[in-house]
Structures are given as C-alpha cells and as structure tokens.
C-alpha cells in the first residue's frame, strides 16, 4: 500500500493533525477516571466521554505522545508521533512504542463492544514488525478492529500505518472478558 501521491499524503497528514488539534482543544486531562465516571456506561460510552473530554485520558498517552482519535462499536484508532526519545540503540523507534499503540488499539476496540459492568484484560498480544519506524514519519495511526467478541473471549486486530498508507506493523490480540470490580452479578 505505497502508491499514494504526495498531495494525497499531505492531505491525509493535514486531516490527521486537524483531528488531533480538535481533540486537544477539548482540554483533555491525563489521569485515572473516578468509578462514578464509568458506572452504568458501556465501553463505547466510556470512549465517547473520553473523546468529549469528560473522562481523563490515560497518563501513558502523554508519556509516549499518542492519543485516542476515534472510537466506534468494535473499532478504536490511536494516533502517535514517533520521536527520537522513542529510539532504541540501533537508531529506530523501539518496538515497545509500536506495540503500545497497537495494544491500545486492539484492546480499546474490544472495550467498545463491552456492556456496562464488564471489563477485559489482554491474554495475548502478537505483533509483526514490517518496516522500521523513525522520527522522519511525523505521525502514524494504529487502527484496531474486533474480529470476534463473545461473552468470555474477544479477538481483535490492528494495523499501524503512516499517512501515505505505509504499513509499519500489525497485531492481533486475545482478551479475557469478566465482570468489572463492583459490578452487580
């Protein structure tokens, strides 16, 4: 998927950065939400609240310079900026940074399908690194999509792409679904 024109790549980059600016203008806070902010909300409702700025975003997104940019039923998108601070000793972005974006995308895609009172944890994450990532790529997106979501187990996949369509990595996950702490049986 490397055939995008320069104009198309620039338009995609501009659109991605505009979406990021729109979300940052909502004055998101980084932190951990209070239980009452999640009570009675489905997974999708939690992410909708996060995108509105009503619920804090995870502190790790500030540390690693990435953020949730979209969520819908069975889908979650995160956008990140690879920096020199994310490099490994070999001069490319550390695989852990890439894995974190992909893990966020697949896990949150699963979370969007959960009803109120349910939670999940990752049982397995498999990442395939396709192409080295450097700070020359100013922005990337991890797009996660649920494959299957049952009452106890869910699977999802994600792709990490640049604005020109270049695939840098892809991942799959298996998640365990369970009753959230404090949820009524």
Outline the structure in words.
The protein is an alpha+beta fold and 185 residues long. The protein has a single domain (6-179), classed as Thiol Ester Dehydrase, Chain A, CATH 3.10.129. 30% of the residues lie in helices and 31% in strands. The chain contains five helices and six strands. The protein has helices at residues 6-24, 35-38, 43-52, 59-63, 95-111, and strands spanning 66-72, 75-80, 118-129, 140-149, 153-161, 167-179. It has a six-stranded antiparallel sheet with strand order 1-2-4-5-6-3, with helices on both faces. It is globular.
Give a short overview.
By secondary structure, the chain is an alpha+beta fold.
Name its key features.
single chain; 185 residues; alpha+beta; Thiol Ester Dehydrase, Chain A; six-stranded antiparallel β-sheet; 5 helices; 30% helix; globular
Topology:
Blueprint: H1 6-24, H2 35-38, H3 43-52, H4 59-63, E1 66-72, E2 75-80, H5 95-111, E3 118-129, E4 140-149, E5 153-161, E6 167-179
CATH architecture, by name, is: Roll
The amount of beta strand, in percent, is 25-35%
The count of helical stretches stands at: 5
Shape: globular
Q: Please tell me the total number of domains.
A: 1
Strand order of the largest sheet: 1-2-4-5-6-3
Instruction: Please give the alpha-carbon distance between the first and last residues.
Output: 47 Å
Compute the CA-based radius of gyration: 17 Å
Fourth CATH level, the homologous superfamily: Hotdog Thioesterase
Poorly predicted tracts of residues: none
Order of helices and strands: HHHHEEHEEEE
- The CATH class is Alpha Beta
* Biggest sheet descriptor: 6 strands, antiparallel
**What is the arithmetic mean of pLDDT?**
94
> Structural class of the secondary elements?
alpha+beta
CATH topology: Thiol Ester Dehydrase, Chain A
Number of strands: 6
